[in-house]
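Input chain follows. Return structure tokens only.
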Amino acid sequence: MSTRIRISTGILTAAIGVFALQAIDIAGQNSTAKPPAGGNAAPRIATLKKPSAASDKPYRAPRTVDGQPDLQGYWTNATLVPLQRPAGVTTEFLPREEFEKRVAQRVAMDEEQTTPGTTGDVHYDFTQFALDKTQSPIAENYRTSLIVDPPDGRLPPQTPEAQKRLQAAAAARKQQGGQYDRVQNISQGSRCIVAGGAGPPLMDAGYNANYQIVQSKDVVMILTEMIHDARIIPIDKARPAPPAGYKGWMGASRGWWEGDTLVVETTNFNGRNPFQQASTDTLKVTERFTRKSADQIAYRFTVEDPNAWTRPWTAEAILQTIEGPIFEHACHEGNYGIANTLAGVRLAEKLAAEEAAKKGTK
């Protein structure tokens, strides 16, 4: 087990810390911070392919039958890079030695991530159920944050209005009771409504962070494995924007080609699945997909929401090719099983109350 990396969704962001992988500017711009050279620090870490020094020719993506850059295939955005740069870290990239040290620490920490015989052990032993990150390649990435703008790698400040809104929402949740007091208190992901990986933007879902891209002349489809959501993106910049009254969980997307880069602009979110817990229905996400090699796509996105943050911000990630196909993500336990979940919690509460009453009479 010492060669496996197992990441729990509940502790992913906090525990990764400055844990990051790849020293290449995937936006195609040279960085003043030169990443370390060398091999992989952990099994199944995929290195970004670069043009050979001999030819020094830029990579040219293969073409579809319609002459468009071909982005089709099966991809993962599984990563060990946190969205925000951790406090106290001032560099854009980790040195290789520090990266390897942190990989080793992470492996050791995840050796016993759950207690055998507990509910958590059944659900969250990712390796046992083939949900650990090492089941798929992870792109080598030495960045200390996915965020590249602002330059400090941190989310910009929230607006005063957003802070008040989030405080009011937190107070309302307290009034609603515990997570299993009623179905509305259970998270949308657990209820199989929408998962974090569906986006936009596309974010590492923790496990099953996989996608399938299919193209035609006029449309690009991105299928997300988690809850099997499919984004249908018309490739027509001149197409009128959807009416303001239309609101969707994943918004409404419009795409166009800028050279070899697919640009996708998404608006008309319903605001009920706030990105980073702060966005509203005025959110706009602009994504850029650029194939950089036979097995990797550079993915860059900019987030704008004047009702959430004081300025737009941008992040970069990598889509790494994987072996397909993607199988159905049958999220039945949080869908049809909600009634059973709540019934089980009510029974547990009843038994606990009866036990407490027995102790009180002694």
